[in-house]
Amino acid sequence: MMDKLAMNKPSMGKNSTQHKQAFDEPLWWGLFSAGGVCFAVFLPAVILFIAVLLPLGLLPAEALSYERASTLLFSVPGFLFVGAVVCLPLFHAAHRLRHGMFDISVGNDALNKKLMYGGAALLSIVALGLVVAGMLG
Amino acid sequence: MDKLSTQRLPPLKRNWWLKHRFFKLYMLREATVLPLVFFTLCLLAGMVALLQGADSWQGWIVFMGSPIVLLLNLLALAASLFHAATFFVLFPRVMPIRIAGHSLPDQAIVAGQWAGVVAVALLFFWLFGRA
Amino acid sequence: MNTEQINAKNVSTKHISVKRYMPDSSAEPYWQQYELPVDDSTSLLDALNHIKEQLDSTLSYRWSCRMAICGSCGVMVNGIPKLGCKTFLRDYEGEIRIEPLSHFPVQRDLVVDMAIFLEHLAAVKPYLIDDNPVKPYDPQAPETYQQSPEQLARYKQFANCINCGLCYSACPQFGLNPEFLGPAALTLAHRYNLDSRDHGKKQRMAELNRHEGVWSCTFVGFCSKVCPKHVDPAAAVNQGKVEAAKHTLIALFKG
Ligand code: SF4
Ligand code: FES
Predict the structure, then answer these.
(1) Out of the domains of life, which is the source (chain A) (predicted)?
(2) Residue B103: what are its φ and ψ, rounded to 5°?
(3) Does B18 touch chain A (CB under 8 A)?
(4) pLDDT-derived band at B8, boundaries 50, 70, 90
(5) CA A106, CA A81: separation in Å to the nearest integer?
(6) What is this structure's pTM?
(7) B74-117: per-residue pLDDT in tens?
């Protein structure tokens, strides 16, 4: 039985596997993994300081004043910050949402893929564009 | 091959993950990206506000302080920590680090990653925390 | 351990519900309860054998080695894939529900059709693909090809698989899409890719780097939880993703 299968499979598999190569998946997975690291390592502190302590008024007044926030964000380190805290985590989220939708049988994967990764790419460009606009303006 | 071997089952129903605790935790792990997306959109709004000027920036901070937004972002904070806890243990299994033929113990790699989280938090404290 | 503990057999009576399916007599599966005496050393396979011999000879199930090595006695116990011979009834309080392995077509009672599993195993060429010169054809060839303990250690864990298929019953991605090569096949591919004597990685990569190869895996990780041999198939599959990514990069630069 095994022999018969082993004989059958490669011959019919050869052509079909070659054009079924998923050359895009390594890219999505790489972005997902990098985003996962950023989500885990950077986001706890980022969320704590920017989304919790800042609005609660628990940071010193000038810590994120308009002037200081602008200088920090609209700079090369700010650009990198946005890459690590916005763009990569967005691709991480896109990947998990795409697979999550497959898990609960929502939509079809080919379309979900375009929507999710497309959305992440679009928002990433907007985010990085905002930093560049701030640096120029 | 007999005809039975070509038999195929219908795929799982969409509620398969409700049947076992392990799968529920898996779905929770996957769902950590939902509050993450919310926080990211908030952050994007903040960047737009910063670009518009001092008044919008103040307005954004007020918006971030509204109870629902604050609550969702606290959820995002919890999600990021849960994600970290689940993600860090996967790392040594996906990329086992071998030094001189011996693999580094998993706990060391996990601890190293948590040290990274703490280091980033300290960096933020150094940047924003001091009066 | 003192003699008293060894002698303490704790004989009791337990109820086992088995999901029966006999296509010749009824189109629908149904549950049947059995009551049998068990002690501390009664495995689930012992219990099934007891049912077959003493209570109901119509029950069908697979087994052979009764020592967790042939991989044929897999069933679902309270919804979790287990080897019958490695599962002890002393560990179960209350009801014990036995079903055929999930995600495989049922042929009869606890017997499932594993053809697709075997197809997936065969697809990754799970054997040494070796283009080293050998003695009969090349006098210059060495007597033997040696492997150091370090080289063995790289793949040893992944070579412990007994092809029981429990991980396929644990894997929702296989349940959602049976074309997914699945944990054991991808692990076996990785095992041969890591073998210093093998030269077949390129051929296997073509199978692995497909949507139905490593990329269908979302690291649910339940496969590794249920594996009776601690193979950690989830780790192997995800190491396979790293390899597939490298393979893609190389293919990209070579054009
Ligand atoms: S990897 Fe483990 S669970 Fe899967 S077939 Fe092999 S021994 Fe069984
Ligand atoms: S009877 Fe062989 S593994 Fe259980």
Answers:
(1) Bacteria
(2) -85, 140
(3) no
(4) low
(5) 33
(6) 0.91
(7) 999 999 999 999 999 999 999 988 777 677 889 999 999 999 99
Name the nearest CA neighbour of B31 among C176, A102, C215, A93: A93
Residue of C nearest to B28 (CA): C220
Predicted confidence at residue C135, as pLDDT, reads 81
Q: Which of C116, C220, C239, C246 to mutate to test the interface with B (most CBs of B within 10 A)?
A: C220
Which of C72, C91, C112 is the endpoint of a domain? C112
Q: d(Cα B29, Cα B26) in Å, to the nearest integer?
A: 5
Asked whether residue C97 falls in the same domain as residue C72, the answer is yes
Q: Are residues C128 and C191 in the same domain?
A: yes
CATH code (residue B57)? 1.20.1300.10
Q: Ligand 1: which atom is nearest the Cα of residue C187?
A: 1
Three-state DSSP state, C3 = helix
Residue B57 lies in domain: 15-76
Query: Under an 8 A CB cutoff, do C238 and B1 touch?
Result: no
Which CATH number characterizes residue C160's domain? 1.10.1060.10
Q: Cβ separation of A22 and C213 shorter than 8 Å?
A: yes
**CA A5 to ligand 2 centroid distance, Å:** 24
Tens of pLDDT, residue by residue over A44-86, are 999 999 999 999 999 998 899 999 999 999 999 999 999 999 9
Specify the ligand 2 atom closest to the Cα of C83.
4
Q: Using DSSP, state whether B102 is helix, strand or coil.
A: strand
Confirm or reject contact between B68 and chain A (CB < 8 A): no
Of C206, A28, C243, nearest to B95 by C-alpha is: C243
With 60 as the cut, is the pLDDT of residue A2 above it?
Answer: no
User: Could you give the ipTM of this predicted complex?
Assistant: 0.90
What is the residue with the minimal CA distance to atom 3 of ligand 1?
Answer: C227
CA B113 to chain centre: 14
Residue A8 has pLDDT above 90, yes or no: no
| Residue ranges of domains in chain A, CATH in brackets | 31-136 (1.20.1300.10)
The closest CB to that of B33, out of A96, A105, A123, belongs to A96
